[in-house]
Amino acid sequence: MKPIIISEADYIKSCTRVDDNGRNKVVLRTTERARYVTLTDADGRVYGELSNFDEPYDFTTHVFYLPPQATDRPMTVNFFNNSKKPSKFFEKRGDAGQTTLSPETVTVTDRESFIAQTDNGISPVQVTEAEICDGVKYQILDCKNKAGAPVKVFALFVDPAKAEFSAGTANDGYAGDTEIQTVKEQAESAIANGRRVIAATNADFFDMFGNNAPAGLCVKDGRSIANPDSMRNFFGMDRNGKPVIANFVESPELIGQLKCAVSGREIYLRDGALSELSLCEPFSAISHPRTTVGIRADGTVIIMVVDGRLPEYSNGATIVDLGRLMQSMGAKRAVNIDGGGSCTFLVNLGGELTMLNRPADLVRPTELLIRPIFNSIQVIQK
Q: What pTM, to 2 d.p., does this model score?
């Protein structure tokens, strides 16, 4: 099939090159959803993108690791359209396209510049705190960023000696990747089965446009119910009740030793310092609603939700912002999990499950909603 030739200006939104821990990382953003993207250099060498490992359902951001100076000469971009509907350039899904990437259009940046550009200086103006039960409390932080815009943060602090964690699922079951429910419905099902759910938030990324499959590992009651071989980062609890943020590449000893686990993206905080930041990727750099989990040195777990997309109420956070907030709360390790319109912060107040935050998706940003999702993080009173 002969590819459709499209101009670079029409098809490429941006291209950024950054030094990612000594590697030449190139982030290519396309105007339309694409898949199977490759770059061919001037000498005919072909480079495939880093698979959408970090976010498997984003087809407009394409990440490559290339040899030094690979983008100093024009490169050919080959791709297949991934839009289900006819678009500006393509009649159907799977049509092939091609364009040229010019060196002049590649922006060069570095890690420290990226951090400085995406640190919004979020700081609390007022903090409200309440105890749910012994060992579990929550805070509502009314914050401002450095531009003076409001940011609403909700943080749950859990002593693992007083409460434990469970992966919430549809009907409190083990259906794998077929059923979804809201965080509240999952919690209600768990309560009906005798679990003492005192708080819950959303958890893993999932294919909300397909079969609802979660992006990574899900372990419930010691049983792997989704993607048991996933190499993605996760938050969970081992069989001894110890909270962990890890992955099976760095911690193979945890294979088969988890009581619960839900998957995430970046472990953006390690030993209290900023770590994996998905440099120059829009997902990381743009202020979005976020859900994240951190662990202090004493084992205290912090589950945090940042609302966003509602300018007069809350403007969201970048990954760097999450790192700064978690550092201020004393976390030593933290992982970013699903956010956006899935963000849900639910607490059990006097026997009633109450949503404290205001989820906002891109289609209905001003409507109060609670989205059906694959799994959730449940805090269970011992």
A: 0.91
